[in-house]
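A note on notation is needed here, since sequence and fold are reported together in a single record. The reader may check this reading against the record printed directly beneath this paragraph.
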Amino acid sequence: MMEKTKYGAIKIDGKKVAEEIKGEIKEQVTRLRAEGKKLPHLAIIMVGDDGASQTYVDHKVKASKSVGFHYTLLRFAETISEEKLLKHIEQINQDDDVDGLIVQLPLPEHISVERVTDMIQPAKDVDGFTNQNFGSIVSKDQGVLPATPYGVMELLRRYDIETKGKHCVMVGCSRIVGAPLSMMLSTKGNATVTMCHKYTENLATFTGSADILLVAVGKPGLITADMVKEGAVVIDIGTTKIDDASRSRGFRIVGDVVYAEVASKASYITPVPGGVGPMTIASLLLNTLQASEERAIY
């Protein structure tokens, strides 16, 4: 049974869906093990000791363990040269046992994210960041889908939210989320899509016409109730850490949408945290499983 928020909208529970997906993956891995077949293997590279990055990596390692994947975690000092890092990536590209590779971002300033991303073999790029995978979104020959947009599409599918013929407004045009998600909604979701960004004037004119409003900017409080159409589906992808002395950790995570206000008008809404966030890791696992299955065919 779908859970309603206390404000009226149905909560799109990404945490619950992510756990369901991990359970499904675990069943497939158990079957592979019983049949004596190769298990999926995810490699993760982390450069430096950024606290937030370490937390994300810890979550990915924990998720990999929970579904029975093999994993390799490679940690390098912040001072590693770009050329040495690229050589390590090439070694993983050539390792037939590794199915998926993630290079945790951000990277130190002296290392080019573009060069690193382009070095990853597209078939092992389970983040979906390479140019080949990005371009394949609009191709019939689909590659690996970007993890966060894939997670959003999966949430919409599992909550039976129709996108065909609907007007979707995407606020945010990043290469990681906004741009690929807009293309996926159009090409795979058969929606009419409007993309907005920081230069869009009269933003409320666009958001107020959306059947499905998706926001990925990283600006707390950007979307208020007066900017949302009655009954709209609202997907909040923004995450920002703000100080909060009332919390034991001294901070809390908020999205781009004023949740309490907007949930009183929306039909469905994602919370932050617990909405899209958990789906990103679930999508990484799905991509790794898919990569493993496709490599087993050849």
